[in-house]
Amino acid sequence: MKFYHIPASCSLAPHIILNELNLDVTLVSVDYRRHVTGDGANFHEVNPHGYVPALELDDGRILREGPAILQYLADLHPDSGLAPANGTFKRYRLQEWLNFLSTEVHKGFIPLLYAVQAGKYVELAKPKLEQRYAWIDQQLVSRPYLMGEAFGVADAYLFALTGWGQAPWLTSYYKADIHFDQLEHLRDWYRRVRTRPAVQRALRQEGLLQDLLR
Ligand SMILES: N[C@@H](CCC(=O)N[C@@H](CS)C(=O)NCC(=O)O)C(=O)O
User: Fold this and answer.
1) Helix 66-76 vs helix 153-162: angle between axes, to the nearest 10 degrees?
2) What is the topology classification, in CATH, of domain 2-80?
3) Which of 3, 6, 10 is the best mutation target for the ligand 1 pocket, counting ligand atoms within 8 Å of the beta carbon and taking the most?
4) Which H or E run contains 27?
5) Is the CB of 71 under 6 A from ligand 1?
6) Domain regions of the chain by residue span
């Protein structure tokens, strides 16, 4: 398999899951601005939309969209517990999380990441994202991970996105002007996830480990 990614982007989530599963994969880094891969190919031929993540299977098929890739990888090894079994109610709960993270959190960050271009829209977008994170913090009061007792693909997704915000305990990858300092359950969850060997390996592979020990 080949995995196309941009360091510190949302593709960190499936990257973590690839590591959790110890899958044999070739990592291909994509130049964010030029849409050219590390091996010189035009990334638009892999994904006409131009965005990561993309997973190329050994038979040449290409799977796009983070939530689909996360579930595909988890289902390669159902015993990993990274996603509940298909057809169960818990699987719909996972899809609820993935959709929430994708539409409310991931895309909620965009105006903050492009604040200059977004202008006054940031004033509308930022409180919504803050509210989403406050809610996530409350979900983590009674359980160590988003889906319950075990780490799973939704945690990997939230971990990748949270690195775009700011807090003293956070390994921040970008400088979105949103601060999570007061969210103590999010903080404890973040520390738990960050210490996982698969997460550390992904951070190291993406060149993001410098301040891991804070
Ligand atoms: N709907 C896509 C969105 C992925 C996405 O936003 N990827 C960003 C990085 S987080 C990207 O590659 N941006 C580069 C571009 O759009 O050219 C998914 O969920 O996988």
Assistant:
1) 140
2) Glutaredoxin (3.40.30)
3) 10
4) strand 26-29
5) no
6) 2-80, 89-196
